[in-house]
Amino acid sequence: MKTIQFFDTSLRDGEQTPGVNFNTAEKVRIAKQLESYGIDALEAGFPITSPGDFEAVSEIAKAVDTMTVVGLARCRKKDIDAAYEALKHANHPQIHVFLATSEIHMKYKLHMSEEEVLASIKEHVTYAKSLFEKVQFSPEDATRTEKEFLVKAIQTAVDAGATIINVPDTVGYSNPTEYGELFQYITSNCQNIDNVIFSCHCHNDLGMATANALAAIENGAGRVEGTINGIGERAGNTAIEEVALALHIRQDFYQAKTNIILEKTKMTSDLISRLSGIPIHKTKPIIGGNAFAHESGIHQDGVLKHPDTYEIMTPQLIGLKTNHLPLGKLSGSHAFGQKLIELGYTNLTPEEQQILFDEFKVLADKKKNILDRDIHALVAGNAISTSQSLELKNLQLQFTSNGQQAAVIEIETSDKEKLSDSATGLGSIQAIYNTINRIMDKDVQLDAFRIESLTSGEDAQAEVHVEVSNPETQESVHGVGIDFDILTASAKAYINAFSKLREGEKHD
Ligand SMILES: CC(=O)SCCNC(=O)CCNC(=O)[C@H](O)C(C)(C)COP(=O)(O)OP(=O)(O)OC[C@H]1O[C@@H](n2cnc3c(N)ncnc32)[C@H](O)[C@@H]1OP(=O)(O)O
Ligand SMILES: CC(C)C(=O)C(=O)O
Ligand SMILES: [Mg+2]
């Protein structure tokens, strides 16, 4: 089985992500993490670009032990000298020399002819080889380069001493079929390449960076360049964790292994995300927040019965503790029942569970994320409504911005009698409470009103507490109402208090 190497460029191409700027200490920390993650070679920077980049490459060179440390250089002697200086303390130094070979780049950017480009490659790779044992050459914009000329450029670099040839899809233009064929074309047309490692470097402009890297591997690439979380110039680079996991999970197909310690994937990804300030999209493969989350009922039921039904890898494989079954409107009774058990509601009868499940579905239609506290509230709310003799059946409000508010309310008694009426008030809550007073034909006194948000977010559930007293009997009761809507929760709390007053009257 072949071994595929990983060349990480999170600190060089990754730092070309607009807005990303790692300081030296952060870069050293990342380098150490990448070494422990099993990265074979780390492009620590482009030393000529600034004193800061030079210092970071030097510090990483000193800090890293077994991993190869790479410095980038244009085909300019001063760039190669700077890389040499920065890497002089590295245990395993490597230089990466590049020059664009596509007609567009040669004509408009470099203002160089094909002959000048070939001469520059020969001169600078030869010079790099006089200072470094490991020399990598990249024909920038290879995938838009005329193929015969690309082979000439690569052959020139190999003849001058390059032992690693990287084939960049600089602008993310290629697709897996073409990119794979390009590796076939290069390897069958270049000479003396027995000891040359071919490497791929893809950008994600058309969303094909991972697929292209895998196509390169299928066609002879022994090394993959990429970044953690796929950060990088424009739409980013190949995400190393995606290729590493694809090779692992589909070893049957790719017949390849890597040196990556997969269990460190999540912590490595988290570190890059934290220090780069680039959050990971929820649906990002492997490391996105939803990668191991199952929301729909049929999937949740399957995963509860056997995770393999809907998971091609375990969360533990990438260093996560567990998968996640978020509850939402598409969840089913199995997942809901499992959540009730997790939260300690183990004594519910099947009928009680069914009532709660029906209420949960109504809530989930209104609320995007159902949190544990929502379930607690649901159970608590249900306990309130099943124990009370009055239940809110309907509430309608008419709101005017500069006048009296009006409410129409229907209440059902435990004998299934429906009572309804309407009233106005200065505010919506006063209108609701005046209406309930009319329905109950009693003027009680509202002594206290308190509202709490049970969960966070715009769609949080509200819990309303009221203290109500009967002036005739001096009896004082506490009522509570829980609902997604504040005004409904307020009505429920008041009705709950009335239920208690009625209970008290019955017992007198
Ligand atoms: C595909 C990639 O990701 S390539 C890497 C991109 N990374 C960066 O650019 C890192 C940050 N860059 C920098 O700090 C600066 O661009 C530097 C220090 C590298 C160069 O700065 P300057 O000398 O001011 O030049 P500037 O960036 O404006 O222009 C680039 C010059 O390099 C030349 N050049 C570009 N690529 C190469 C190359 N591979 N070999 C030789 N010369 C090159 C350009 O033709 C241009 O030359 P010119 O000044 O003769 O026209
Ligand atoms: C420097 C080169 C390899 C590069 O980043 C690219 O071509 O995308
Ligand atoms: Mg690049």
UniProtKB/TrEMBL annotation:
<dbReference type="InterPro" id="IPR013709">
    <property type="entry name" value="2-isopropylmalate_synth_dimer"/>
</dbReference>
<dbReference type="Pfam" id="PF08502">
    <property type="entry name" value="LeuA_dimer"/>
</dbReference>
<feature type="region of interest" description="Regulatory domain">
    <location>
        <begin position="391"/>
        <end position="508"/>
    </location>
</feature>
<comment type="function">
    <text>Catalyzes the condensation of the acetyl group of acetyl-CoA with 3-methyl-2-oxobutanoate (2-ketoisovalerate) to form 3-carboxy-3-hydroxy-4-methylpentanoate (2-isopropylmalate).</text>
</comment>
<dbReference type="InterPro" id="IPR036230">
    <property type="entry name" value="LeuA_allosteric_dom_sf"/>
</dbReference>
<keyword id="KW-0479">Metal-binding</keyword>
<feature type="binding site">
    <location>
        <position position="201"/>
    </location>
    <ligand>
        <name>Mn(2+)</name>
    </ligand>
</feature>
<keyword id="KW-0432">Leucine biosynthesis</keyword>
<protein>
    <recommendedName>
        <fullName>2-isopropylmalate synthase</fullName>
        <ecNumber>2.3.3.13</ecNumber>
    </recommendedName>
</protein>
<dbReference type="GO" id="GO:0009098">
    <property type="term" value="P:L-leucine biosynthetic process"/>
</dbReference>
<comment type="pathway">
    <text>Amino-acid biosynthesis; L-leucine biosynthesis; L-leucine from 3-methyl-2-oxobutanoate: step 1/4.</text>
</comment>
<dbReference type="Pfam" id="PF22617">
    <property type="entry name" value="HCS_D2"/>
</dbReference>
<dbReference type="InterPro" id="IPR000891">
    <property type="entry name" value="PYR_CT"/>
</dbReference>
<dbReference type="InterPro" id="IPR002034">
    <property type="entry name" value="AIPM/Hcit_synth_CS"/>
</dbReference>
<dbReference type="GO" id="GO:0003852">
    <property type="term" value="F:2-isopropylmalate synthase activity"/>
</dbReference>
<dbReference type="InterPro" id="IPR013785">
    <property type="entry name" value="Aldolase_TIM"/>
</dbReference>
<dbReference type="InterPro" id="IPR005671">
    <property type="entry name" value="LeuA_bact_synth"/>
</dbReference>
<dbReference type="Pfam" id="PF00682">
    <property type="entry name" value="HMGL-like"/>
</dbReference>
<keyword id="KW-0808">Transferase</keyword>
<dbReference type="GO" id="GO:0005737">
    <property type="term" value="C:cytoplasm"/>
</dbReference>
<keyword id="KW-0464">Manganese</keyword>
<feature type="binding site">
    <location>
        <position position="13"/>
    </location>
    <ligand>
        <name>Mn(2+)</name>
    </ligand>
</feature>
<feature type="binding site">
    <location>
        <position position="237"/>
    </location>
    <ligand>
        <name>Mn(2+)</name>
    </ligand>
</feature>
<keyword id="KW-0100">Branched-chain amino acid biosynthesis</keyword>
<dbReference type="GO" id="GO:0003985">
    <property type="term" value="F:acetyl-CoA C-acetyltransferase activity"/>
</dbReference>
<keyword id="KW-0963">Cytoplasm</keyword>
<dbReference type="InterPro" id="IPR054691">
    <property type="entry name" value="LeuA/HCS_post-cat"/>
</dbReference>
<dbReference type="GO" id="GO:0030145">
    <property type="term" value="F:manganese ion binding"/>
</dbReference>
<keyword id="KW-0028">Amino-acid biosynthesis</keyword>
<comment type="subunit">
    <text>Homodimer.</text>
</comment>
<comment type="similarity">
    <text>Belongs to the alpha-IPM synthase/homocitrate synthase family. LeuA type 1 subfamily.</text>
</comment>
<dbReference type="InterPro" id="IPR050073">
    <property type="entry name" value="2-IPM_HCS-like"/>
</dbReference>
<feature type="domain" description="Pyruvate carboxyltransferase">
    <location>
        <begin position="4"/>
        <end position="266"/>
    </location>
</feature>
<feature type="binding site">
    <location>
        <position position="203"/>
    </location>
    <ligand>
        <name>Mn(2+)</name>
    </ligand>
</feature>
